[in-house]
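From the methods appendix. Each design record in this collection lists the tokenized structure first, followed by the designed amino acid sequence. Records were kept in a plain field format so they could be parsed without special tools. The example shown here is representative of the layout used throughout.

RECORD:
FOLD TOKENS (105 positions):
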């Protein structure tokens, strides 16, 4: 006897307490190669000249595109419910130094 369609496509996801608490980040740096995207999430504290990456997520280009679509849908849903998210223009970006060679175009 075959399982119902719902059970075949169901994914059971678990989260432990530490991960469920989340990690606050107010800066994201995205880099990529031909095979993957790297998302570094950082917490920058005003007046502190150094910040650490709090979380790094590595994704395939296909999963990154799905994430982009999902984020856009959720921002649209949020704005429909709570109003437009204002994003003031930032005139500067902090200097980023990861201790490695700097990129060249």
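DESIGN:
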């Amino acid at each position: 006897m075959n399982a119902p369609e719902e059970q075949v496509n169901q994914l059971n996801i678990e989260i432990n307490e530490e991960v469920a608490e989340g990690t606050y980040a107010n800066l994201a740096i995205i880099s990529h190669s031909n095979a993957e995207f790297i998302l570094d999430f950082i917490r920058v504290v005003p007046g502190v000249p150094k910040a650490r990456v709090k979380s790094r997520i590595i994704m395939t280009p296909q999963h990154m595109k799905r994430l982009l679509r999902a984020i856009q849908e959720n921002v649209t849903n949020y704005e429909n419910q709570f109003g437009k998210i204002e994003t003031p223009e930032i005139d500067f970006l902090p200097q980023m130094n990861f201790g490695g060679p700097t990129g060249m175009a």
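APPENDIX NOTE: Residues 22-82 form one domain.
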